[in-house]
Amino acid sequence: MISFDLECGNEHRFEGIFRDYESFADQMARGMVTCPYCESGDIKRLFSGCSIQARPSTAAVIDRKSPNIFDMMRLVESYVKENFDNVGSDFAETARAIYYGAEEERNIYGQSTQEEIRELLDEGIHVLPLPSPGTAEN
Ligand SMILES: [Zn+2]
Known about the structure:
By secondary structure, the protein is an alpha+beta fold. The chain has 2 domains: 2-45, no CATH class; 48-129, no CATH class. 30% of the residues lie in helices and 24% in strands. It contains 4 helices and 7 strands. It has helices spanning 21-29, 69-83, 91-99, 114-122, and strands at residues 2-8, 13-18, 43-45, 48-52, 85-88, 108-112, 127-129. The strands form 2 sheets. Strands 5-6-4-7 form a 4-stranded mixed beta sheet, with helices on both faces. The radius of gyration is 17 Å and the shape is globular. It starts with a strand and ends in a 9-residue tail after the last strand. The chain binds zinc ion (ZN). Zinc ion is lined by residues 8, 10, 12, 35, 37-38, 40.
């Protein structure tokens, strides 16, 4: 069983549980996935923001005098956005390519699903979650 974070056209968020990815894709293709709140069939998958750091030595500097967790999260996020490459929704693929040496080693961030993050972690690839969705920047 796998679960996906889903959102309908009316911005209702809910979790969809499916037998496997194929079952999810099939039900999505046939418009069988509907919102439990408003029964809308206009469903999309939500992607979570995440990042991966190829060189753990370059850590974000956090001001210890301001222990506000929200400030800290903002700091980490702005650090990541300034220093990491945004690979958008290709995150999982690119992270894997770097990990296995198919691509040049670098720090990246982007969007991925909970499932993809779980798979990356299972493969020993260290993914750091970002506080907010890694929205694509122009
Ligand atoms: Zn809805």
